[in-house]
Amino acid sequence: MRIVVLTGAGISAESGLSTFRDEGGLWEGHDPMTVATPEAFEDDPDLVHRFYDQRRAALGRVRPNAAHEALARLGKALGADLYLVTQNVDDLHERAGSPHVHHMHGRLRAALCQACGTSHDWHEPLSHRPPCPRCLRTTLRPDVVWFGEVPYGMYDIHEALWECDLFVSIGTSGLVYPAAAFVHLAAGRTLELNLEASVGADGFDDVREGPATEIVPRWVDEVLG
Ligand code: BJW
């Protein structure tokens, strides 16, 4: 059985990382959505760098939870039959042991040089404008996908959706496209796992509600029999 799993901020919530739109999602009094745009970066790069530096630093203080671990178990059992795509820029799937993770909205632990286009693994702050290790210009930005930019690897995702027997969406509000439309592109059955049904829940064949650390391991156990 070929399965595509899409994850969103809700899967990392119980690890201690804030979601974007749930209560308490404010950052320094800003709606996080207002800093996740190229225009915000152009207008106030210090503010945007600070936002991402804080989130990158927070990764060192959190750990994968039972939901990430269950998906890693599924990935090891299914091999190429599991396509795991995440909107999250954290690295908790990798740290839980998932063999392949497609980060459609980029990664916090990567910096993209706007001058030479190179993406570098990056664990340090960017606020102090370090030089690009390749071209030495001080033009690094977080290698994440902001509104108005094209998510990474869309062709591969579409291909996986067209060929899947099951599409499972975990912990995402269904408010951000193109991820919100994946349910309509999936060839197979569709299942939503969320703390509470999302705005797009009507588009799924089945919906299960509850915290990810409970409902994801339960679903994985069912799949693995
Ligand atoms: C739990 C839980 C627990 C909590 N257990 N669950 C069509 C129609 C309308 C608009 C558009 C459209 N197509 C494109 C657009 C424009 C735009 C868009 O979608 N705008 C909307 C606001 C309307 N989209 C874009 O600009 C995208 N680009 C694009 O479309 O390019 C064109 C193109 C596409 C494809 C091919 C060719 C061309 C880019 C979108 C980039 C989004 N970037 C961000 C920031 C990334 C960097 C960063 O992290 O800072 O991505 S925004 C932010 O939202 C982030 C997230 O990945 C994304 C989704 O958020 P998510 O994960 O759903 O989090 P929340 O907070 O919204 O929800 C949390 C959920 O968890 C809730 O449901 C809770 O219930 C649940 N939960 N605790 C289980 N314990």
Textual characterization of the structure:
It is a single chain. With 225 residues, the chain is of the alpha/beta class. It folds into 2 domains: 3-16 and 63-105 and 150-224, TPP-binding domain (Rossmann fold, 3-Layer(aba) Sandwich), CATH 3.40.50; 18-61 and 106-144, SIR2/SIRT2 'Small Domain' (2-Layer Sandwich). The protein is 33% helix and 19% strand. The chain has helices at 10-13, 32-35, 38-43, 45-59, 66-78, 92-96, 154-163, 182-185, 212-224, and strands at residues 3-7, 82-86, 102-103, 106-113, 119-121, 140-144, 166-170, 189-194, 206-209. The strands form 2 sheets. It has a 6-stranded parallel β-sheet with strand order 3-2-1-7-8-9, with helices on both faces. The relative contact order is 0.19.
CATH domain class name of the largest domain = Alpha Beta
Strand content: 15-25%
Q: In this structure, how is the largest beta sheet organized?
A: 6 strands, parallel
What does the overall shape look like?
globular
- Portion of residues in helices? 25-40%
What is the name of the CATH superfamily of the largest domain?
A: TPP-binding domain
Enumerate the distinct ligands. ligand BJW
What is the β-strand count?
9
User: Roughly what is the average pLDDT, rounded to an integer?
Assistant: 96
Which structural class do you get from the secondary structure elements? alpha/beta
Order of helices and strands: EHHHHHEHEEEEHEHEEH
Lateral strand order in the biggest sheet: 3-2-1-7-8-9
Poorly predicted regions are none
Instruction: Give the N-to-C terminal Cα separation.
Output: 13 Å
The CATH architecture category of the largest domain equals 3-Layer(aba) Sandwich
Supply the number of structural domains. 2
Number of helices: 9
Radius of gyration from the CA trace? 17 Å
Q: How is the CATH topology of the largest domain named?
A: Rossmann fold
